[in-house]
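Hi,

I'm pasting everything inline rather than attaching a file, because the server keeps stripping attachments. The sequence lines come first, and each chain or strand is labelled.
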Amino acid sequence: MTRYRWATPWLFLAPVLALFGVFKFWPTIWGIYLSFFEVRPYRGNRWVGWDNFTTAFHDPVLRSAVGHTLLDAVVTVAASALLGFGLALLLEGPARHLRILRTAAFLPVVTAMVAVAELWNTLLYPGSFGTVNTLLGHLGLGAQPFLSSPHSSLASVMLVQVWKSAPYDMVIFVAGLAGIDRQLYEAAAIDGAGAWHRLRHVTLPALRPVTTIVLTLGIIRGLRVFTEIYVLTGGGPAGSTETIVTYTYKEGIQNNTLGLASAVSTVLFLVTVLLTCLTLWWRRRKEA
Amino acid sequence: MSAPTTALGLRMPDRAAWRIVVRVLLYALVLFVFFMPLWTMAATVFSGGQPKSGQMSLLPRHFTLSNLTTAFRFGVGRGLLNSVVVTGVGLFLQVTVSAFAAYALARKKFRGQALVLLAILSTMMMPEEVIAIPLYLVLGKVPDPLGGSSLLDSYSGLILPVVGWALPIYVLTGFMKTIPVELEEAARMDGAGDLRIFFQIILPLCRAALGTCAVFGFLMIWDQYLLPLLVAQSPHMYTMTLVVTSLSSSQEQTEGVRLAASLMLMVPSVLVYLGLQRLFERGMLNGSLKG
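And the predicted assembly:
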């Protein structure tokens, strides 16, 4: 019995390690490997060195997709955090009506992204009797094309993303606000600090650690945005909402240029790893 | 001090009353922005008559179930069934294997432990979106344990890739570390083996953490879109998310029918959230910041 004690933890870990091995590590490594090949089903892969990377780098579609992705990630994360913070200031507190309001406002977060995209596709219908356009009409504003015009499509997608993620940030901030020592507010009030000064010098500094982590991890996650884009616009119109992952999906699965798609995915993976490590390293340094 | 008078001779409202009015107006605005769209969706689903495309209802007009029944005729029933099977089986397996792994990581000391933990956490940087292309090829190569030649277009292909997830392992490992070692040692004195200790002592004490993991696992699997997009090829394998998008790309369906499918996709998650809100919020604040 005791001779095999060393094996016990490995038996408990075996299912997870096997699953990760097959569905995470194997694809990751294979993807890096395929980046250097022209993938030709049934005829064998052909080694092409860095060609896939240079082709991708020179593709104007991918270049604009990278731009859209960065813009989308930074803007939606920042806007969600700002709006979430405002919501938290408004709805923070133990009172019953505040809890109910928070719960109602949180429903977009738990709703599947596909359903959210489908709903907003209808709400943002470009015709003048589209729901949002009807509202704009009541306010005396003209009908907007929203998702159907290359000039407003990316902004419209961001609007939907912020709608879904701001209440999430709200809950994080509500918890952060609840954790602030009330005596600090009282002390500040006694010193004659007004609402704005209390916010500026007590609330914001106390929330800073939470906020930086939410923002950086949110942006890293934003780099792989796919579902909402693919369902709302499919990357269009005229490529105006193409992002890195919709680009790799189209190249890889629809056009069957697997090597090129793998090369782009590999770069995205390496950037993700680099940024995550930097974030963790930076946080550890702050804490030490 | 009396309140100042405006140019029109109206008295400015008292400061406290004014604040309450502003607050209530802001509450209404929050509900309008974040809740109203979902309400409108439900109202449109239960409204009769042929609306123009893009037209929605604020209140159900000519109440009808016909949008729902039409949606069910076009695959929503099958989609719900598939999603329930995939989510049910996937969630059970996910929580089980995560608890096993967490037990080893939290309660055992062995060579390579730090490396295993690092490997598990590093999978968070390998989501489907980043490995979609090679994952698709892997799914085509691995035989289906239930008998098929590959995982493509199979339930195993929809389920197995989501079973391994770092988040519940991380949450459960943290939780199990807080359970006093004395309980385990006493049982070991009585001759209990690892499996018995795991099932009879550790698992029952983890109930709260297991519940949190179940809520998150449910939403994670239920909302899957890219994986079914890669795996499911014939319509009878479509999960609910794929049914919703395929209905919306067919031009014949009215807004009511399309939104009926979205509503059916949304209702189970909302019910789970409302029912288990406490577990959900606690989990969000403890572990999922890393997610």
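Residues 60-91 of chain A form the longest helix (32 residues).

If the labels don't parse on your end, tell me and I'll reformat.
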